[in-house]
């Protein structure tokens, strides 16, 4: 039985360098469960996804970050890829957008390198998260406890390590959105 999130709006914050499967698979899950997904970006036109480091598909931006507000959405997804969150964490509008979701208690799901933007937003201190293993030091230096688990939920934060974890990641995302 699939979780229904009919009428819920989910923002996917991403830019160039997003790991394609970490954007497309959770988006498909949201839409299959009846939710509305919207690509929010620091770019205005389209983003270039990657498959590891190789160029993959291009995706149209549905809302520029400058026009987006956490109050317009029920949850936020932060896909990974190495370059994507690195670009996002240097953009004050993107960082503030993430902080608004966390502070509002809305579900925020970050996978792979996605937690870099959570670190920049200053919202991981005292929290427990998982991520791609190379972020362990960054997360612990920011005050978080890092665990090596397929998916970990700490309050409104849902985190996963890698593309292989996407099924568990999307299950927790949909469950959190349905309960919110």
UniProtKB/TrEMBL annotation:
Gene3D superfamilies: 3.40.50.880. Keywords: Glutamine amidotransferase. SUPFAM superfamilies: Class I glutamine amidotransferase-like (SSF52317). Pfam families: DJ-1_PfpI. Residues 8-175 form the DJ-1/PfpI domain. InterPro entries: C56_PfpI-like, Class_I_gatase-like, DJ-1/PfpI. PANTHER family: DJ-1 PROTEIN, PROTEINASE. Belongs to the peptidase C56 family. This is Type 1 glutamine amidotransferase.
């Amino acid at each position: 039985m699939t979780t229904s999130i009919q009428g819920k709006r989910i923002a996917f914050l991403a830019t160039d360098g997003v790991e394609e499967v970490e954007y497309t698979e959770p988006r498909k899950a949201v839409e299959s469960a009846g939710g509305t997904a919207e690509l929010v970006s620091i770019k205005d036109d389209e983003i270039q996804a990657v498959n590891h480091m190789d160029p993959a598909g291009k995706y149209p931006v549905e809302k520029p970050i400058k026009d987006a507000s956490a109050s317009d959405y029920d949850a936020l997804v932060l896909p990974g890829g190495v370059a994507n969150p690195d670009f996002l964490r240097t953009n004050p509008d993107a960082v503030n957008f993430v902080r608004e979701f966390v502070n509002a208690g809305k579900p925020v799901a970050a996978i792979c390198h996605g937690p870099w933007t959570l670190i920049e937003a200053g919202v991981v201190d005292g929290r427990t998260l998982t991520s791609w293993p190379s972020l362990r030091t960054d997360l612990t230096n920011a005050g978080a406890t890092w665990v090596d688990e397929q998916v970990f939920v700490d309050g409104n934060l849902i985190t996963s390590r890698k593309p292989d974890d996407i099924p568990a990641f999307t299950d927790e995302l949909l469950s959190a959105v349905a309960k919110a």
